[in-house]
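Anyone opening a protein record will find just a pair of labelled lines. With that in mind, the following record should read easily:
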Amino acid sequence: EEQIAQIKEWWQRNGKPLLAGGALAIVLVFAWQGWQNHQSDQAQAASVLYQQLLETTLVPSDQVDAQQVAKLLAELKKVNSNSAYAQYGRLLAAKVAVDNKQLDDAALELNEVLAKPANDTLAELARQRLARVLLAQGQAEQALKLLDAKVQAAFIATREELRGDALVALERNTEAKAAYQKAQQAISSEAAAGSSLIMKLDNLSEKDA
């Protein structure tokens, strides 16, 4: 009877907290599983939408349905606006906007990626494409500032070539030549020989002469 009384006393002190804690643990487990399932469903939906968007844009530029691109991108953003799928979708939409000479729209999509990139590769792709858009808009100074950020080794060649283009637009030819040469050094000799860099360097040499 004394042991039973001790058990009852222990239960009164600890039973309810244990039950509450156990119930909370079960709720947390189910909530976590629900969240995981939700994330999985989101990723699957985003993947399907991105594939549709890709198929819509992988046609000759004059045959792209810009309204369908905008519709699919809006749906993709609704699923998860900061996912890598949504951001790659923005890059595709920016390309379509550039093809349609809607440079402001292209800049808007690229700036959204650059504001909160899903990964470093997306950040660099958005940065370089935005720099090209700025150059096309005659904003070489802004493009140059954009390209001053730290760069991964894999992107040095294209980054420096873009810097050279911006410097040429600003008539800073000596600096442009140095940027082109740096770009040339960053890629293999075979690639450099067949690239536009040779032509750009030759053009600068002619100007210097």
Summary: The CA atoms of residues 192 and 198 lie 7 Å apart. DSSP finds ten helices and no strands in the chain.
